[in-house]
Amino acid sequence: METLTDAELTVLGLLLEQPRHGYELERVIEERGVxxxxxxxxxxxxxxxxxxxxxxxxxxxxxxxxxxxxxKSRSTYQVTAAGRLLCGxxxxxxxxxxxxxxxxxxxxxxxxxxxxxxDVVAGLTRRLEALRNxxxxxxxARARQAPLPTAASAIFDYCEAMLQADAGWTEATLGVxxxxxxxxxxxxxxxxxxxxxPPAKDFAVVDVPELRYLAxxxxxxxxxxxxxxxxxxxxxxxxxxxxFASKKTLDRDFVVGPLEGLWRADDPTAFVxxxxxxxxxxxxxxxxxxxxxDMVRAAVADVAKKKDNPALATLRxxxxxxxxxxxxxxxxxxxxxxxxLDRLHNRYLPxxxxxxxxxxxxxxxSDPRRTEPAKLKTILRQPVKAA
Length: 387
What we know:
Blueprint: H1 6-17, E1 20-21, H2 22-32, H3 45-54, E2 58-60, E3 76-79, H4 81-96, H5 104-111, H6 117-145, H7 150-182, H8 188-191, H9 193-196, E4 204-208, E5 211-219, H10 226-250, E6 259-264, H11 269-273, E7 280-287, H12 293-306, E8 316-320, E9 323-331, H13 338-351, E10 354-356, E11 360-364, E12 377-386
């Protein structure tokens, strides 16, 4: 048995009501608000008519005597016996077919843990506004055609029910997310604002207490090292798992912190010359003090079940005390850090009687996947001591 697309079945059904030509179909489709519940495009009517005619499901009726057939739009189409039979079978099947739960918003929700919560809220807010506008359009189309026959009324009932259900789900989900966003959740950027909001013009001296991080060690150019990519994926995977586990089991929520990195080299000038192959690194994500070793081990084990990542085997909970540090906010590409680091190493530290006392530390406040290189914000931090 042949099959029909939803658009084909809709057009065939309209022709089964009575023979019509193309612009009559356009008018009926517009008046009845058919596009609110089908995938019929504004320019697809004649394409569908040609397709149905080529399959022998409709045919152009004879031109009345004395009338000259010219424009394609004036051809009146009627359903053939084959079309009538197939339309009946397809309509019965459509009545019994369940609506598949494949809304694209579900893909978005599945991926939403990887976005900042404010971006998820913004996306769902736009969705809710669009649903309300569409619901208003459907109701307006219904009002224009009142009173409606039973079948047409049932169609509008269904459309309104689906849109109301979707709007209700979206509104409820937004309510939960908004409540979570405004609830008292730990955010290291706010709890330690003095460490995560340095000036961009001048170096600032801060005292960094013991902080705890998820950490993975590695070596080499971060732009080309597969180990670096694996480390970052492992850190974020475990960090989000810990966030959800903490909220579920401890009723304590927190914002996943930014990616951070400790960088070291046998010769510190490798950072100024950007000799990246000589760099060794420890990539990190900060953790609240209630996250325990056992929780980290459990999270690593759960993440490992879903994806084979060699970096998970070396991921650990690191307690880091940096003490006195000098830091500054760098705005721009990572490769443009050299002048600032040169000023720090060869001017600021000597002029203030200071020297190195630990690894160079960077905090990546921007997502490089969504931020232009010139607008990237990176904290450059250097532990120091008296020279």
